[in-house]
Amino acid sequence: MTRPLAKQTRRADAQHNVEKILDAAVNCLSRDPDASVSAIAQAAGVGRVTLYGHFPSRDVLVEAALTRVLTEGEELLAGLDLTGDPRDALRVLIRSSWLLIAQSSAVLEAAQASLPPGRVHELHAEPARRVDQLIRRGQDEGAFRADLPASWLTSVLHHLMKGAAADVATGQLDRAEAPRLISETVLAAYRVDG
Amino acid sequence: MTRPLAKQTRRADAQHNVEKILDAAVNCLSRDPDASVSAIAQAAGVGRVTLYGHFPSRDVLVEAALTRVLTEGEELLAGLDLTGDPRDALRVLIRSSWLLIAQSSAVLEAAQASLPPGRVHELHAEPARRVDQLIRRGQDEGAFRADLPASWLTSVLHHLMKGAAADVATGQLDRAEAPRLISETVLAAYRVDG
DNA sequence: GCTAAGTTGAACGGTAGTGTTCGGGTTACG
DNA sequence: CGTAACCCGAACACTACCGTTCAACTTAGC
Asked: Which of A122, A150, B72, B186 has the highest local Cβ count within 10 Å?
């Protein structure tokens, strides 16, 4: 630790730099989970030493970036109405969250690599519960199949969104079409009756 | 390049060491795509210098490991009868290939990180075509839905297998149950009629 | 406008990986 | 059995990253 960092009131420009650094960290880690501190600092338009003045280590920075992207997602998803037909709710959830999930999953991967095991799952627990509850409700109401465990259905949704994001990144898939394909596929996979 | 390496006839023990190194490379890279040359050499029970005697660089070694795992898979999958009902064929294909895919996908990721872009896709083209052809045949025969592009359906299968493997690795999913869950899910997702 | 808070580049030490060289030791194979 | 092929540990140079220190500079905020 090079600087105090424990002060309650910080100068305005310092606070602003912290924001710039976090933005840059999310951007860089989304593209490359192994992005170096130098690269992040440069992307933030800030010296490397300045960065270390605000974040004592790379691990702390990565965790901060992860919590930021998670809280951002939480804010965006908190306003959604998921109380109607589970199928419609799932469509809504996918349409307005798939890109977010895709982006955060890259940061999540970065965190997975450098944070103590379990820490990531701990931070990620609450956002994951929203999806899980929707799926369980759908199963209870007979809208989704119940012959497969809910945890698996959750996992399916997660992996399909990540996969679609990867396909978009490699140019195999058109970004605009992704939400429709994901919804169509997931809803078909969740449908009752074999 | 430290040694000739261009000789047609190699001593038996040298050839044997190459095999040991490739085995170790596949094992190590499956667990950690960033596995170091030292770790691979140690796992192979061989000196690091010996390894460099057979593979001039890490990249070459990774590519060799990838082609090995791909040809192994090719041998295993070549004997399968995929001519019947596309649904049954898909079940057979999943059951006997998902673990293989899961393992090779980690090596593939390692290759993706250190080989020139496009090279991986080039090597991976032939195995991917088998799946793609089965899916297209299923669409033509009306067994699989045709309202989504075949490339996407292929991608879905791929990502679900990778995801299931990841879940098994993290302990969220029982290895024995994976093939059934994948088959049930994919077949439901591929089913005709909305 | 003064001052403390903040920023900055240069530089250092430490770690880890890659690829290479060297010298001496083994061993396959004719 | 002899020799060439091969193996090996130690050590080297090189690169990249992390985290830190320092001394000088800029600037926010009273």
From this structure: B186
Is B173's CB within 8 Å of A181's CB? Answer: no
Half-sphere exposure (Cβ direction) of B146: Cα atoms closer than 13 Å: 8
**Helix, strand, or coil (residue B125):** helix
Give pLDDT, residue A8.
55
Residue A158 CA to residue B192 CA, distance in Å, equals 23
The mean pLDDT value of chain B amounts to: 92
Residues 6+ apart with CB under 8 A from B128: B154
What integer pLDDT is reported at residue A7 of this predicted model? 43
- Gap between the Cα atoms of A53 and B64, Å rounded: 44
Q: What would the mean pLDDT of B41-57 be, rounded to a whole number?
A: 98
Instruction: Provide the pLDDT for residue B8.
Output: 57
- Cβ proximity of B69 and B48 under 8 Å: no
Return mean pLDDT, chain A.
Answer: 92
Is the Cβ pair A156, B160 closer than 8 Å?
yes
Give the N- to C-terminal CA distance of chain B in Å, as an integer.
59
**B166 at the A interface (CB within 8 A)?**
yes
**Nearest chain A Cα to B163, which residue?**
A159
The span from the CA of A136 to the CA of A116, in Å, is 30
8 Å CB contact of A159 and B155: no
Taking the C1' atom of every nucleotide in all shown strands and the CA of B15, the nearest one is D6
Closest CA in chain B for residue A194 = B188
Instruction: Provide the positions of strand D that have an atom within 7 A of a protein CB.
Output: 5-11, 16-22, 27-29
- Chain A nearest C-alpha distance from B8 (Å): 39
Find the largest Cα–Cα distance for chain B.
Answer: 62
Predicted confidence at residue B3, as pLDDT, reads: 41
Mean pLDDT of B56-62: 98
